[in-house]
Amino acid sequence: MASNRPFNVDPVLTAIAIGYSNPAQALIADKVLPRMPVPQELFKWTEYPAVEAFTVPQTEVGRLGQVNQVEFTGKERESAVRDYGLDVPIPIGDINVARAARAAGTGNFDPEQHAVTMLTKLVQLDREVRCATVVQDPATYAAERRLVLAGDDQLSDYENSDPLGVLDAAIEGPLIYRANTLVMGNKPWSFLKRHPKLVNAVKGNLTSEGFITKQQLADLLDIRQVLVGDAHVNTARPGQDMKLTRAWGNFISALYVDPTASKGEATFGFTAQFGTKIAGRIEDKDVGLEGGFRIRSGEKVREVIVAKDVGCLIQNPVAEAA
């Protein structure tokens, strides 16, 4: 008789479990908006006007004159982490049967460990989607730091487009700070890595065929990293057939990212994190006939854009129909 448990205890089966999820390398949120610990759930930061750092006052002082005075100002910003987490109920019967199978050497499935793993991946995927949503949003960037490509300028037009010119303009576009990170979805990357003009530049004018790597593009542009988001997410409503789409779409962002920024340095954004990720079990007598446990995984974080002027967005880098 078929079991309605999430595992099978048939001793004939081998201890192999196959499942689908986003691989760790597909998730880039922690590199785009690096995590920074905060001492409490409510946190603050100070935003300093750029004009004060670049306006040179009179510094010459006469023999009996007074030294010129300047005043530095700043706006205090405030935010708070949010709680993100998920539960899954597990009947005590499932736990006992799985434990007995492990003791008998007929299985290695642990429903509690499996639940923690899957819940943690879902919480991470939700964070990836939040990060992708804000980074791809044109409203996140200053109006003068948005480049919109169309027609021959789009990088999917290998003959007419100028990928080096477009990318260099975006990298030099942020205020004061030259961007050190390119962020994009899989679609624009699939065209960039095969663009004949980029391949030719990387290969030293020897060939225009083949591919380039993300590190080769970073070296060519003299930036720290190229990040390509490859996470998939199901956008169908519950009960409908799965509809997988990519969290990171048709865009390229040139950002100045400083994962160590904390004492007045600029960075495009960060993720405030209070405490560490949590995972645990909570007894629940209402799970099944015999009761059970609710397995929980979550974290307290908040994605924050703190210096939108050190980012530049390229919209529609490749043709949608390409």
Give a summary of the structure in a few sentences:
The protein is an alpha+beta fold and 322 residues long.
Overall description:
This protein is α+β, with helices and mostly antiparallel strands. The protein has a domain at 24-60 and 73-82 and 140-276 and 301-315: phage-related protein like fold, CATH 3.90.1690.10. 25% of the residues lie in helices and 25% in strands. It contains eight helices and 14 strands. It has helices spanning 29-32, 51-54, 92-104, 111-136, 163-172, 186-192, 196-202, 214-221; strands at residues 35-37, 42-47, 75-80, 82-91, 146-148, 181-185, 225-229, 232-234, 244-246, 251-255, 269-273, 278-284, 292-305, 311-315. The strands form four sheets. Strands 1, 4, 11, 12 and 13 form a five-stranded mixed beta sheet that branches. A five-stranded mixed beta sheet has the order 5-14-10-6-7, with helices on both faces. Strand 12 and strand 13 form a beta hairpin. The radius of gyration is 26 Å and the shape is flat. Mean pLDDT is 88; it is low at 7-17.
